[in-house]
Amino acid sequence: MERLGDDELGLVLTSVVRWRDRKSCARVCRRWRRVEALTRSALRVLDPHYLPRFLPRFPNLTALEAATPISDADLDLIARSCPDLESLNLNAHRSLIELDEEPQGVEPPDVTDAGLCAISICCRKLKNISLRRRKGVGDVGAIELAKHAKGLSSLDLSWCSKVTDRAVGAFCALNSLMVLCLRGCPLVTDSGLACLANGPLSRSLRVLDVSECDQITDLGVCLLRHIPCLEELSLADCGPMITDVGGIAIASIVGLQSLDLSWLINLSDATLIALARNCRNMVEINVTGCELVTGVGILSYSNHPALKILVLASCYGVSANDVERMMLASPSLRYVGLDKSLRGWMPSSVQEKLSHICRIDWL
C-alpha cells in the first residue's frame, strides 16, 4: 500500500461507502486521513461549533447535513469551503421549536436569510436543499436561492413561516425544479399557486406539498390543473375553503399518483368520484377526516387499476360494509387505513378475510 500514490489511494477509498469503514481507514495514518478527507463527498455535522476546525479538511463535499442550530457564520464558512455542494439538508429537529417556547431559555443563533444568501452565491451547483423548521429563513434568502441555484431540483421550506407568495413567485422561473414543499407556510396563498401554475415551473414540477397553508382556497386549487406533470400533491389541513369545486378541478391532472386530502371537511363523494374516473394512475389517496365522504365515494374506487394505498380514518359516513365491498373488488390494494371505530362493526371473520387481501391498520 505504501507504493500507491495519492490518486490510486483515493480511488480505493472512493469505493469505501460505509462511514464506519471510512473512519477506520482514516485512522491508519496521517496520509490516509488526509486522502480520505479529500475523497469524502458527504458529511453530517453534529456540532457546528467545531466546523472551523474540521471543515477545511473536506473541500470536495457534495452533500452536507446538519439538524442542530447553525448560525449564519457557519453557513458562510460552509459556502466558502464547499463550493461544489449539490445537496444541503438543514432540516431542524422538533426540539428547535420547543426551544422557542421556553420562556427562560436562551435561543441559540440559527440560520437566517443572510446565511442562505451566502450559500446561494457560492454554491451554484445546488440541486437539493431542505430547510424545514428554520424559522429565520424568509423571502430574501429564498429569492436569492432561486436567482443563483438555477439547477435546483428539490426545495423544502416546510414550516419556514416567513416565506410568502413573493418567494413562491421567484421559484416559478426554475424550470428544473421537480419537488417543492411549502407545508406549514401560512403566508402562501392562492396568488402563490397562480405563480406556480403560470410560469416555466409548471412544466417540470412533479411533487407539491402545500398542506397546512390555510389561506388557500378553491381559486388557487383550480389553477393547479395547469401543472400537467404533477404526480404527488398534498392539500392536507388547508382548511374549509377547499371544496368539491377545487377537488373536481384537480381530477383533471390525469397523471396524479399520490394525493393527500386529509381534513378537508368540505370535500365530498363528488371529488372522489371525479378522481376515480379520471386519475387512473392514482396509487395512494388519503381522505382522513373528510366527514362528507360516504360509501358512494369509496365504492367508486372498486376495480381501480392502480390504487394500492387508501386511508379512511375519521370518515364517519363510511360503513364497514362499504369497506368490505370496496376491498373485495380492488385486487391492487396493498394497504388500507381504517378508523378504529369501524372495527367493532366488522365481524372478525370478515376482518380475517380482508387481512388476506392487504394490510389493514386501525387508526
UniProtKB/TrEMBL annotation:
F-box/LRR-repeat protein 15-like leucin rich repeat domain location: 111-338
GO cellular component terms listed in the entry, alphabetical order: cytoplasm
Limits of the COI1 F-box domain: 5-41
Pfam families named in the record: DUF7885 (PF25372), F-box_5 (PF18511)
PANTHER family membership: F-BOX_LRR-REPEAT PROTEIN 3, PARTNER OF PAIRED, ISOFORM B-RELATED
Identification of the protein by name: (wild Malaysian banana) hypothetical protein
